[in-house]
Amino acid sequence: TTFRVAVRPVEMRSGAGVLVSFEDVTHAEQLVQMRRDFVANVSHELKTPLTALIGFIETLKGPARNDPVGQARFLNIMEAEAHRMNRLVSDLLSLSRVEADERVRPTERIDLGASILATISGLSPLAQEADVTLVHDLPDAQVVVPADRDQLHQVLTNLIENAIKYCGKGTTVTVRLGAPDYAPGLRAQAATLIIQDNGPGIDPIHLPRLTERFYRIDTHRSREMGGTGLGLAIVKHIVNRHRGRLKIQSEQGAGTRFTITLPVS
Ligand code: ADP
């Protein structure tokens, strides 16, 4: 705990006195520290591809000037690095946008089943390429929630894409929608959305920190897969903005399950 202590002279009936005040600034200090860490992380994440780009430009201008095969290879790497920076900037913008309007509740009426089907069909080429099977299980009746269409799409995309990226060949990702019910901890009826995979799972020690910005289990693997480390942080903020809940359960060797409950009104 951090206190800010102020001492101020005051006039009292019995003569001169001092007023000593203690203010608990722990939370404010934590916010300042978080902001500092965030800026340091962003700078580092941007600097890594930038350093690579500068290195390759120098090589192209110098040693590889007359080497067309090398040039083609370096240009491909440079393209991948530039795409990485682009994804990072897009994710940073998404994050800052959802954080900025976290207090404004979404009002558009969204058919969750239709949203799921649209997202799955958009991601099926990626799944096919990775040899991952996408399965859905939707109730007969329509499930409609107040939501922001683009943000809901982003939540589904981030979670399904992660499952495809981190589970690999021969695995199955199931997206299940439950009809509205009274969920524990929520007073209003809520729809339940489950994204479950049967991949390698996540060691439970990582679960509490998984939605922190830039938290990754294996930084090298995440980078290789084109990850920015911001996907789950974005998901958490969007779910918060919808007054929903996000629960992550995982067992090593058995897969991971993300459960989202979204109030229906
Ligand atoms: P990234 O951009 O690295 O994918 P995320 O915030 O989306 O960042 O995810 C954070 C980390 O959580 C990932 O780096 C990965 O290690 C782990 N992860 C996310 N989803 C899964 C999953 N379905 N199975 C295994 N690990 C996962």
UniProtKB/TrEMBL annotation:
Keywords per UniProt: ATP-binding, Cell membrane, Kinase, Membrane, Nucleotide-binding, Phosphoprotein, Transferase, Two-component regulatory system
MF annotations from Gene Ontology: ATP binding; phosphoprotein phosphatase activity; phosphorelay sensor kinase activity
GO cellular component, one term: plasma membrane
Keyword Chloroplast listed: no
Residues included from the entire protein: 81 to 345 of 345
Catalytic activities: ATP + protein L-histidine = ADP + protein N-phospho-L-histidine
Native species: Antarctobacter heliothermus
Protein name: histidine kinase
Domain annotation Histidine kinase: ranges: 41-265
EC number: 2.7.13.3
Lineage of the species this protein comes from: Bacteria, Pseudomonadati, Pseudomonadota, Alphaproteobacteria, Rhodobacterales
